[in-house]
Amino acid sequence: MDKQQQAICYFRDHFNCAQAVFTVFGKENGLTEDQCLKVACGFGAGIGRQQNICGALSGAVMAIGLKYGKAAGDGEEKKSDTYSRTRELFKEFTGLNGSSCCRELLNGFDINNPADYEEIIRLKLFQINCEKYVNDAVLITEKLLK
C-alpha cells in the first residue's frame, strides 16, 4: 500500500487529516505510530477545529520539519531549507485546491455550526474534499522529501 492509500486509511479510520498525513511520514522517520497520532491530533480541522490552515497541510509541514528541520546545534541553513520546502508545499497545494484554509476548502461551511456540519455530512465533503486534500498533501510531501 502506498503512502496516499495509507493516509486515506487513517483518515477513514476516524483520525483527522493532520494525523493521517503526518503518521505515514513520521513512522519512517523514527517515531512510533502512537507518537505521530498524538503529536498531530491538535492540528486537525484547521488546528483544533478552528478551520484555519488545512490539517493535511499541517501534517505535511510537520513531516518536512521532522526530516529537514533545524535542531540544537544545526546551522541556519536547516531552517531556511525547511521554510523553502514549506513554501513550495503551500504553493503547490493552493495551486491544486485554490486555498490552504480549511473553511474555504469545505465550501465555506463552519464545522462547529450544527446546521453547517449536517450539510458537510450530507454533501460528503469529508469523503470527497478532505480525502483529496490528504492525498494531495501526501503526494506533494513525498516529492519535497526526496
Task: Describe what this molecule looks like in 3D.
The two termini are 19 Å apart. The longest helix is centred in the middle third of the chain and has 22 residues, at 76-97. The chain is mostly helical. The relative contact order is 0.16. It is built from eight helices and no strands.
Largest sheet: none
Structural class call reads mainly alpha
H/E series, N to C? HHHHHHHH
List the total number of helices: 8
CA-atom Rg in angstroms: 15 Å
Shape: globular
The portion of residues forming beta strands comes to under 5%
Spans with pLDDT under 50 lasting ≥5 residues? Answer: none
Termini separation comes to 19 Å
Average pLDDT rating: 97
Roughly what percent helix?
A: 55-70%
Summarize the structure in short.
With about 150 residues, the protein is mostly helical. It is built from eight helices and no strands. The chain has helices at about 5-10, 15-25, 35-40, 55-70, 75-95, 100-105, 115-120, 125-145.
Feature tags:
about 150 residues, globular
Write the layout of secondary structure elements.
Elements: H1 3-12, H2 17-26, H3 33-40, H4 55-68, H5 76-97, H6 102-105, H7 114-122, H8 125-144
Helix pairs in contact: 1-2, 1-8, 2-3, 2-4, 2-8, 4-5, 4-8, 5-8
